[in-house]
Amino acid sequence: MELSDVFYEELFYLATLPFLSVIIHYFYSHCFVCRVERKIHLYTLYSIYFACSAALRLCPIPGIVMLMLNIGLVVLLTFFYRGSLKWRVCAAFFVFALILLSDVVMPAAYSSKGYIINLFLSKLLMFMLVLISTRIATSYGEGSLSSWYWGLLFFCPLISIMGIALLTSNMFFRTYPVLFSITSGGLLIINFLLFVLCDRVLCVQSAKSKSQLLEQQNAYYVNQYLMTKEMQEESFKSQHDFKNILVGLRAKLQSGVEKKDLYELDKLLGGMEHLAGVCHSGNIIIDSILNYKRQTAEKYHIPFTFDLNIPPQMELDTTTISVILGNTLDNAIEACKEKENIERYIKVHMQYLNESLFIRIQNPYVHEIRTNMKGEIASTKSNKQVHGIGLKNIKRTVEDCNGLLDISYDNSLFQVEIVLFNIERVAVAQQVLPSF
């Protein structure tokens, strides 16, 4: 091969490198949220990646070292995207396996022209595979999987990459280069099917989670309906009997029976105070959730107090407020249920101001609060996979709404503060009745 042919091959290789930046960013941005908001910064980031990849290509270093460094670059790019570390690492290995296997699956080229054509065809194949993957996947990058699936997602691309790297030095495969294409094609199909399988599993988990949330919301509404019905019936009874009760009390007062009169008045007022603890802000969603959790807290003799200053009508997403209030109050009730927790109470404060909803929930705690390496609160229960998802769901939901979340715990007081922005009030339209 002439020196000019080698020069043109390297030149065209470098010319196709920017396509890798486009493919990687396209895949990452569909699975995660990019932390880099300004386009100029994003262009700078991938220009640095291009420069590093080109430098590795031109450096006289062993192939296995170059391979590991290229994997490291792709993994480092994931830190500019918001998501779980597990998902980001698995996504990096998957997209690198697609890139490598798409290159190797091309038939062997025995001329510079064939090599250059293979360069462009491999990039086209990479983009098509990434495009199909992102079109099919709807839940990849979110949720939690069992350890078996995590192992498959991590080791299958890694074994594929290392396997292809080792086969390049195998004399049998060097003698029959067509086997490279067949082996790479098989590994490409396996990795792609595994990708789709994990996404389907996540879709099923997401559907179950939504179904459970919907059932919980329905329970809130049914509970609110029953409480409202009970209040209306009690109100109707009081209105119906109020005049008769007053007539009877007037007669007893005239006869001079004072103690019994006081008893009757206390009984009457007690019936009215019985419903004083019921939340009736006028917002059906919030009232339903708070009343439902208040009843749960009362079963464990936990005082539950409200301080609400919110309008009855707000453009508030039902799922969002259900996840936030439901999980936060569940955690508060769990903390107050502890036998060692003598000072039991749950305080809920909600304030609406300048199209923002402020939420503060406080409760005492007695158990030790542990945190993981990221500083996140870790569950102290045996089944961490189940009990550790409450705060994660709250955090994810608040982040999806571009809100603020602050969790503090000091002097045996656990406090969760949340701010949701751009919550507009809904104007209640006056209904015009038709005239007959």
Automatic annotation (TrEMBL):
Gene3D superfamilies: Histidine kinase-like ATPase, C-terminal domain. One of its GO terms (molecular function) is ATP binding. Residues 319-420 form the Sensor histidine kinase NatK-like C-terminal domain. The chain crosses the membrane at residues 12-28, 64-82, 89-109, 115-136, 148-172, 178-198. Keywords: ATP-binding, Membrane, Nucleotide-binding, Transmembrane, Transmembrane helix. SUPFAM superfamilies: ATPase domain of HSP90 chaperone/DNA topoisomerase II/histidine kinase. PANTHER family: TWO-COMPONENT SENSOR HISTIDINE KINASE. This is ATP-binding protein.
